[in-house]
Protein 1
Amino acid sequence: MLLAELLAASERVAATRSRLAKIDALAECLRRLDTSEIALGVAYLSGDTRQGRIGIGYATLKEALAATPVGAPRLTLAQVDEALARLAQIKGTGSAAERARLLDELFARATSGEQDFLARLLLGELRQGALEGIMLDAIAKAARLPAARVRSAAMRAGGLPAVGEAALAEGEAGLARFALKVFQPVQPMLAQPAEDVADALERLGTAAFDWKLDGARVQAHKSGGEIRVYTRSLNEVTSAVPEVVEALRDCVARQIILDGETIALRPDGAPYPFQETMRRFGRKLEVETLRATLSLSVFFSTACSPTGQTSPRNPHGSVSTRSRNFSRRRFSSRALSPATRKPPRLSTTKRSRAATKASWRNHSTPRTRPEAAAPAGSRSRRRTRSTSRSSRRNGAAAAARAGSRTST
């Protein structure tokens, strides 16, 4: 496919505010992609590249944009990918000059509109209104598959391009291989807004409220004696957070995936600013030195354990007695010791009790705030974040989420 054809689809998406129209435009474009182009097309239309960020900044792009554009489109998706792959491999002395040269060559082969598209793509500023949810629905429509099935596979696959390629090239059979596995990090399950606690309870029925710490989201995987830790963006950070690894050494389960928050606490139990906690994730050297002054604590809220085969009837991973691969369940003290690593929780159907929970101040960690989730076995899969004025005024925002929280 020519880049110009994909650009036309991107422009149609950006030109409308209709979700359905966006999905239709994306699906039409996806259907016309060759099998070898599907992953590239999904990535580019989602505002990403196969190589990720490759160190191209505004200054380098400004020079490339000075290239005289061609009159007729001739650049293909495969040629763009090849050029970006070469750019990503350049390192060492003279790399900046070589990157600039290769980028100039690429832009000299593009039309004016393609140059603008490539510049925004490389800067991560495509902003065409094709959010992940819209792209997932477009993949489902193009492949003629249930949207819920595609969403489930995407959460387990760790990215849209792989799911798009499997769905469009192989259909249902292709999605079947994206089972929940240890050491394969899972995409976050996103929240949805609610007006207040009452609105959240009306949507969910019985809900479980617990504290949401203002720390860094972590997903810890254990199989036998091997433990790995991943961030919300699915990057492995095991070596940077030895405290999280040590917390799982006492875990009695042979295989388990745990979702929670890690946070740096002062000696009195109050949290350091969020930015201080994040300092630990950027360190590869002198981790033990920083640990001595900025130690991490970890609190897990959701556990997943292997019990058999995948159940397509449970695509969002909510708790169900029929779930047969990694059954997602609320954190239990039997899964991890000590149980103090589990945040406090209140299960209720009553607005008064939920509102009281939402207004509490956490005695040990003042900057935490409560969340709510539908209980195990709930049919609702909606996840809702409350933004009530009273919650904000008390410094605690209530959130309601359906199904066991499996976001990571």
Protein 2
Amino acid sequence: MTEPSSYAIRGEITDSSFEEQSAADHVHAACPDGQRFAAWLFVGVFASRAFTSSSAYFADANRHLAAIRSHTYVIQAPGYWLFNRIAGLFPDAEVAISVMNWLFSASGAIAFYFAVRRIASERVARVSSIAYATVCFAWLSGNIHSTYASQLLFPVAVFLCLLHYWGNPKFGWLVAAGVLFAVGTGFRPSDGAFFAPAFLYGLSRCQFKHALGCIAVVFPICLAWLIPQQLALSKYVNQSLGSHFAQMADGVLVIGLSRYALSNVIRLVLPFTFFLLPLLGLIFKNRRRPFLWLWVLPGMLFYLLIYFPEAVYMGCLLAPLLLLAADNRTVSERTKVRLFAVCAALNIIFYVGWRPVRLKNQRLQAAEYLIEVDLGKCSFYSVQHHYDPRLSQLLHVRGYGEPSYTPTKN
């Protein structure tokens, strides 16, 4: 016999709009030790990042540090001025970036936990927040010296503020949402652009004067980081965003059908399906939440069709994907708890236990290289050994946007 859903027990409505659900007469039964769990979650996630991090090595880490030391605070467009400028306020920028990312990861897990508590049961909220913190590409973003981990906090914190507003329409919640959106966009402008349709949709469900007030908060904060960022880019970086993008983008809409476009799709699909495999059914069966799908689709379509560099870029999409799974009403609470637990366990085992393998069969080795590059980077081994290979280098072929690669002879 199917276990009765916690939603039916608490009498929650199943309308397709979050604001209507939050405004319903029911009150979420607050767990007396929810604050204690949140505190332990913060400590656990912070410690997991701190004990598995290393010195700067991944992607643009050293370029961020060089920009901070030279006081230019921008790398290639869009620049990331806000992130570098904040890290530059501290004596050791490398340590500052690490601590910032540990805090983003831990605080993001807490924000996700409190958001899920408002749309699902306490048990689902707890196990899903653990899964949110342990998905391998999210874990890696907290270990490296770049901007990705910021998107584990700011978008889901905006969503939490909107949930509070929809349940109790006080303008202060929209002010907080606007500040968080503007600052989060400053850390990663591209991810802010992906989140903007969902944010604007959320504002459309608010009182008009409150929505206008929120937008009035967003604009000056965005200008506060956008103006110095653009000035620094024009002064210190010769390459524009358009030229940088044209050089790197290898999706099917940019270069047509080719092996490079296929590689771009594989880079997205492989980590997405592998790290979230137990939850895929829950995610795709939940079609009731336009806000969450507007949060997912812009970034997912951009990555699929235009440009997807590597798995850590999916950090901005992790919260809505797991929220869709947590909010799924077609399965029992017990099933959701079990699937989230399996997802968390698989990711922990992979992150801690993965190692590269060398095989004699060339075809099997080529397949292993694919796993090595698209999945193996998201592991403690890779962080510990500063292992950040490209598939073109392992296979001794030319990658899109790279110069011809000549293999060395032994």
Protein 3
Amino acid sequence: MLSDGNKTLSPLSTWERGARGQSDCLFLFSSNPYFTTMLRFRNFGFIFLLALFAGCSNNVSLKGTVTFSDDGSPLTQGTIGFRKDGRIARGDIKKDGTFVVGFEKDANGLPPGVYDVFLTGTEIVTMVEKGVMNVSGVEQPMHEIVTEPQILPKYMSADTSGLTFEVTAATKSYDIKVDRFKK
């Protein structure tokens, strides 16, 4: 039994505290009116801030498609970047050429403004067999990793891509046509 001066408190069993989601510490302080008032204000403050941040975003949800200018087929892999004031928002390019852009995660959108656009990770990487090597009397195949660019190198930098895009509240999508790399 515990006492806080005038009252005698009986601790709950471990099972009862677990069922109520209480810890020993919370039980000991829950009879203190100052402590319970502080808990209520803390919860109210958290809910207020959550509602404030959820409702105040002016980000524009932006999606689009990246296709080749010569035949309209989709760019099947890579990352698209939108740079503004030193910050970069990214979106993964899916197999059908579509993307969704955001700063912390793909779906959270972009604030309005003018962005420099670039593409990365668009290279196709393959492994090519280059013969056989004898290692301790055992023949082992030799491989070479070959990287084939799909798009012109200029698109890989925001400074050289020549792609800019203005995001406004009315913007919903941005479709991009890029030139294919020719061997």
Protein 4
Amino acid sequence: MPIILTKKAKRVFPEGTYRARVEKIEMDKSKFEDKEIVKIQFKTDYQPKPNEAAWKITLSCTASLHEKSRLYYVIEKLTGQGLKEGQDFDVETLEGRACFVQVEHQVSDSGNIYAKVADVFRAEEKLKEAGYDL
């Protein structure tokens, strides 16, 4: 008796801006360099089907608080303020924070399409843009 399988299309997070919440933050080692990275996982409001779990997307940043680093930018966007020189910051305090994430597609050298977090916005910032009084 034949066993028939169907190859499903790869599902890629659609481009767009989504409501989200910082769900988890963890430290890891970079696969390419001997550097520590911070992985910020966002749980979004995107559900491809009504009974499916909301999709998550992760942003990886070098574990640096230099003012030009991606992590510094994300902290500044989520908290609404920068850090002073010599100031420590507990990145885990971002967990649970409501925000918006902008997702964009990139194409790898092998032609695969993947989604990445292009930008992060404080929830208050996006709501003000939409005309809500806060």
